[in-house]
Design a protein that fits this description.
Belongs to the bacterial solute-binding protein 1 family. There is one protein chain. This protein is α/β, with parallel strands linked by helices. Helices cover about 45% and strands about 15% of the residues. It contains 18 helices and twelve strands. Strands 1, 2, 3, 6, 10, 11 and 12 form a seven-stranded mixed β-sheet that branches. α2 runs parallel beside α4, α3 crosses α14 and α9 crosses α10. The N terminus is likely disordered.
């Protein structure tokens, strides 16, 4: 499973309950007054943050592995700012979504929290976050797709901390034996996967047959043709457009032709089947590079490679990752933002990769040899320049769940693409954008 689904969205924890909490907060009048926004994302969150040393205590919530190891990096910030203390609380991903919602509802929030990128719209709608202060960071220094994940109604809330994107992993030895090269177009992709299947792989490409977060696999196919989730007005869903029809048809074709087995492979399974040759290719994030090297043995590194995703008009992939946001009622607002700004510096992001293996959200960090000279990571850097995230709307978890559900019906032959997308569009319109 793609790692960014573990960070921003692997768990759609009690989505209905959390959305209800968020809605209650909005109705209760917690929202920020109009006009306090940050425009394109560089400005508008109140007083600018100066360059004086940070002081006091900053409480930070971070999820998963990031929560376990952030203290190592925070110690460097404390050395540079002797009068500040960074208190990191590690929050399991399984409970993070509900915990943030509950803390907002109860008025007991930390100073800073890590956010999955697909959560920003939902929680920003509560008015709980301060927009990014003017001049804190330069939005142009981040990958565009990553910076877009902070924007809600033209206002930036926080900054991107690290990024993930999906590329194509493939067995070079199987491809060579089949006489095919890494695909760049849809036609080449279909031929490539079929050739690996004909060469003995059970799945020429392993794809989830719908279900949880499978929208992350099919949405890029619509984006690559110029399609989108919302129209330019930011309010009208376009999930039954010709581009979405083409995306669903193309995706379902891998199952109809028997090129992909209709089985969802979870963590642990995909690595072993790829190493054994049962899976010829799959899409995933950067964390799989080290997993495959470790589990495949010393020689396996020479038998697989990564490539940008094949595409239509573009080669757009999905982007996710983790953002950092400061709560509006932070008790140490200036120091909180100074810590967030420090985490956004290129040299800090390179150091963070060494600790966490999280990819930098700031483009300049990718000039470091750690990324620029690595045959795997450099491909991720290239892919991040053509990557996209879903819109930051409060209801995205509900809407995407409908896409997941209907895509599975299509791949299993239980409904047509026309009927599936009609249902997706109708239910999306009924759910609304929550804005």
């Amino acid at each position: 499973m793609f790692r960014t689904t573990s960070h921003p969205g692997r768990r759609r924890i009690a989505a209905a309950g959390v959305v209800a909490i968020a809605s209650t907060l909005v109705l209760a009048g917690c929202g920020r007054a109009e006009g306090g926004g940050a425009g394109g994302g560089d400005a508008g969150g109140g007083e600018a943050i100066d360059d004086s040393p940070a002081t006091g205590t900053v409480e930070v919530w971070a999820m998963g592995n990031e929560g376990e190891v952030l203290g190592d990096l925070a110690a460097q910030f404390e050395e540079e700012n002797p009068d500040v203390t960074i208190e990191v609380t590690a929050v399991p991903w399984e409970s993070a979504h509900d915990r943030i919602a509950t803390s907002i509802a109860g008025g007991e929030t930390p100073d800073v929290t890590m956010l999955g990128t697909t959560w920003v719209g939902e929680f920003a709608a509560t008015g709980a976050f301060e927009p990014t202060p003017e001049g804190l960071v330069d939005s142009a220094s981040f990958f565009p797709g990553s910076w877009d994940t902070t924007i809600v109604d033209d206002v930036a809330y926080g900054v991107p901390w690290y990024v993930d994107t999906r590329v194509l992993y493939y067995r070079t030895d199987l491809a060579e034996a089949a006489g095919v090269e890494a695909p760049t177009t849809w036609d080449e992709y279909a031929e490539f996967a079929a050739a690996l299947k004909d060469g003995g792989a059970a799945s020429g490409v392993s794809l989830p047959p719908g279900g949880f977060d499978s929208w992350q696999y099919v949405a890029p196919l619509a984006w690559q043709q110029g399609g989108d989730i919302l129209a330019e007005d930011g309010e009208t869903f376009t999930l039954d457009s010709p581009e979405w029809h083409e995306a669903f048809e193309f995706y379902a074709g891998f199952f109809e032709d028997g090129v992909s087995e209709p089985v969802r492979l979870e963590g642990g399974e995909i690595e072993q089947k790829f190493i054994s040759g049962e899976v010829g290719s799959f899409f995933s994030g950067p964390f799989h590079v080290s997993l495959l090297r470790e589990q495949g043995g010393e020689d396996f590194a020479d038998r697989f490679a990564v490539s940008m995703v094949p595409g239509a008009d573009t080669r757009t992939s999905f982007t996710g990752g983790g953002n950092l946001a400061v709560f509006d009622d932070s008790e140490n607002r200036d120091a909180a933002w100074k810590f967030v700004r420090w985490l956004s510096q290129p040299e800090t992001q390179v150091a963070w990769y060494d600790i966490s293996t999280d990819l930098p959200s700031v483009e300049a960090a990718w000039e470091d040899p750690t990324f620029a000279e690595d045959p795997y990571l450099s491909v991720f850097g290239e892919q991040l320049r053509d990557s996209k995230a879903p819109p930051s709307i409060p209801t995205w978890a509900q809407v995407s769940a409908v896409i997941d559900q209907e895509l599975e019906k299509v791949t299993r032959g239980e409904t047509s693409v026309d009927d599936a997308l009609a249902t997706v569009q109708q239910q999306a319109e009924s759910i609304g954008t929550g804005q």
